């Protein structure tokens, strides 16, 4: 519930906060026009845990990539190599 009210405020979150947050934070991160390198690293760390609505990257398909939306541009080589 609280994540929904944060909106784009997550765009200013520290990477450590992103990693420590509920995985639902990813939906808010989709609203960010740009993420720092450290925020992208945090995003990938959350995705690699596989504890999101997107599951483990090794199970992703075209539907998953489409639903990741703009976050696809923040995926690193480690995450992409599992797809």
From TrEMBL:
Identification of the protein by name: Mesothelin-like
Any GO CC annotation of this UniProt entry: cell surface
Family, similarity comment: Belongs to the mesothelin family.
Organism name: Pygoscelis adeliae
Record keywords, A-Z: Cell adhesion, Glycoprotein, Membrane, Signal
Highest taxon listed in the record's lineage: Eukaryota
Subcellular location: Membrane
GO BP, one annotated term: cell-matrix adhesion
Pfam family, one: Mesothelin
């Amino acid at each position: 519930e609280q994540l929904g009210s944060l909106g784009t405020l997550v765009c200013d979150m520290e990477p450590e906060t992103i990693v420590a947050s509920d995985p639902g934070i990813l939906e808010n991160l989709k609203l960010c026009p740009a993420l720092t390198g450290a925020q992208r690293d945090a995003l990938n760390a959350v995705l690699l845990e596989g504890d999101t609505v997107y599951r483990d990257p090794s199970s992703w398909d075209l539907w998953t990539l489409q639903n990741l939306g703009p976050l696809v541009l923040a995926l690193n080589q480690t995450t992409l190599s599992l797809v």
